[in-house]
User: Fold this.
Amino acid sequence: MKIKVWGARGSVPAPGPETVRYGGNTSCVEITLSDGTLLALDAGTGIRSMGLALGERGRRIHILLTHLHMDHIQGLMFFAPAFNPTAEMVIWGPEAPDASLRDRIARYISAPLSPVEVRELPCHVSFNEAPHTEWRIGSATIRAASVTHRGPTLGYRVTEGDVSLCYIPDHEPALGADIERDDPEWISGFELAHGATLLLHDGQYTNAEYPPRVGWGHSKLSDALAFARRVDTGRLVVFHHDPLHTDDFLDALQGGAIERWTELGGDPSQVEFAAERRELVIDRSPT
Amino acid sequence: MPDEQRPVELILARSLIANLTTPGFLVDEEGIVVFFNDAASVILGVRFEEVGRMGPERWATEFGPYDEAGERVPPEQVALAVALREERPTTARYRLRSLNGVDHDIEAAAVPILTMEGTRGAMVFFWPVEES
Assistant:
């Protein structure tokens, strides 16, 4: 399974000279399965660059949306395959009681926010509420589960053979829970992430930033580390960087996170902060 | 893993109840009490950690509830059973018997936890209306 990060920023794009290395684009991760099937996890502004880079590979793609906050769908309108009449785009996302996935996405891809309506997209596009049970896409098994965030929000686990990627970019498992001591059954996302080869997880806030933001649906860094330790993941990639965090600031945070991870008994090579254009390959041993 | 992952709605409900001073408990979709808070433990005479999760039969044996005549209310008629079965909030008046033998007249409100994946359980809040 090949992975490429196209956007790791949370909340709002943060372009500028101070965010060049980690990037300013919002959530989007490309996955290429061993059979060539192409997935995108979320459609933040990072998916624009991904679309431009795909070329012919973008003729058929599955987009797995965790939720419909703007930083996870804003790039859809600028995704090149959406405007290719020979391309097929299958969009998956959380169900909600008020409207279908298509109608909720159409609130963004419609006037006055957009000059184009969903029905006018030239590509072949379909919308699917994520099933409650595992399903297949290409050579992978996909699993979705609701996780603690504001509004209907999913985390995804993509499993191919004996490797798995778990993606929970917006997640506050410590909201009202004790990640280190509660039984696993009471920890949001535990089962989804348990034993994953690679975990991409929300770590938006520093411990100092978190208290006035409790309940906003994001994790402080120490909670991301504690969650990763608890679910026994092979590797943690901290994701959804706060737009106020510059490259230098994230460097320092990453250093502290690795130090803390080591104190918790982990291997320092197991932790890194997501950076735009970072490529990873996971097989039996993450590289 | 020791137990199946709880749905996020139940996790959040447990978190809410744990942080309230309103006596309350949480049941899963099968009506099993999976948590009650410290305020409830004052009335019940025991902490959740001491008794653990309880099925409807054990709950009825330990605490009731009872009607005004002192008769045990049939399990299918208690507020949480109605909330789960009919998927609507409901209220009722009962008498609970704590583990230390004290009777409490209480009013209870049961609220089902309905989600896109069906009924996940119910929250039940209760408070004493008159000590007997």
